[in-house]
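Budget justification note: compute hours in this period were largely spent on complex prediction jobs such as the one shown. Inputs:
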Amino acid sequence: MSERERRYRGPVIDACVHHHWRSQLEVTDFMSAGWREHIGVPGTLPGGAGAMPILPAAPFRHPAGDYLATAEPDGAPAGSDPGLLVRQALGAGRVERAVLSHDRGMFIPAVPNTHRASALARAINDWTIERWFAADERLFGLVLVPNQTPQEGAAEVRRAGAHERMVGALMAANGLGKPFGHPAYHPIYEAAAELDLPVVLHPGGDVGADTLTHPTAGGMPSTFGELSALAFSPIMTHVQSMIVQGVFEKYPDLRLFVSGVGTAWIPGLFFRLDVNWRGLRREVPWVRRLPSDYFRDHVRVSTWPIDRPAEPDGAERVVKLLDAFGDAADLLCFASGYPHWNTDAVDDIAQRLPASWHAKVFHDNARNWFRWPDRERRPTSRRTVEVGAMPATGVSDAPPARREYPTEDGREIEWVPAAD
Amino acid sequence: MSVIDIGAAEDFPDRTLRQVRAAGLEVAVCRWGAELFAVRGRCPHQAAPLSEGFLQVALSSRFTPDGVEVDADAAEPAVLCPWHRWEFSLRSGESACPGYRVATYPVHEHDGRVLIRVGRG
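Corresponding output:
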């Protein structure tokens, strides 16, 4: 396909831009006088002390800067100036909607002081509504969910999520240190399904020093590069957990959006999970369908950060990989990830994906997935099929994949693929 | 349709799978209480002998406001393939895996003999 054919000129929804505060006073201004006193004011005590920093430590930082240099023109945190964010992320006029997804603020629900975490999450949601929605009508938000206390988290989804421009609920910080399918988190999903809001996962929620979990599987990485390469690993854990623990059977209307970990992890996970489920179904009788069926029906995934194999045909390799999973054009939503160091641009992503995918990936899929103000909230439905009942099946036309090998003594050896 | 004598009733003890050959077909036969079941004796996945598989009963599950309930139905036997544990209902031949099932055959006891019907008609 020629370069010209791979341009995309239609409307764009950016499913993930990151916004942040210039100073934590912006957030504490939305708290009660008591909480403001509790947290304090920076610089009011000698040596610059006087306030508790509200952000948890972020132990992994990009050595050359976490953000686009142009996003921090005066030393203010990247993504903290609504006017600048609108100019840079929406400037070309092609992005008709952008989903504000928080930056390091997404760690807040995991800070050890549980009550402070909940109070901050509420203040941050009000800050997003008041400060950011007023800045541009194309900006939409995600409810920051204080998931360390799931009942309070559910209440906050119902409170802040009632705002018409809150289009999802963010589960980034791993407040309880459990995979997200754990029943402790289910009240949050019940609330999200009730409000017709997709739950949004974003990596980084296991990065903070305050979480009990690791940001990569197997132990703490040593470098930012390792962390970045394996950012999908906790997300795989969470997606697998939500499917296997029956979250989508329990809440058949729940939608999930996975933001910020690219797409190349998808085929490998489901190649294994599907075939294992066939033989392990009795371990999880509430999982009634192939795990990949739940994924296709309940999950959409951001293109950002697009996987970039180093070879000249790297883009084609990724498309082939996604084709191996199938129907990827229906699963992906464009996201820029602005203002992160690896921000993706519309024109570049258009070059990398087949033109036949463009309308869905840049616009239609996100339009159908998030709960936008111009769409009525869908009422939650009741399950009509008994969970655990065997689904209707057909007779396979394919011959058995039997492999037999004669041996010297005439016996037949039947070979079983080890990975099956 | 052929009716084939596959053995004496006492050759089929309760809750035991037995592989027999009938009209050139391998069939797994199982007595389950007062009932007899017969299914194609080879797994449609990779042709493992189902009579060497594991007899279980059907499991189902549901979410309730109090949590997950898991139910076992002692009247619905299932066989798990010995190789990869794929599960088939002995009554219907159905599997939970889309696209796979095993054929079932009518089987009954008459005058102390176990008779199976295979073929068309």
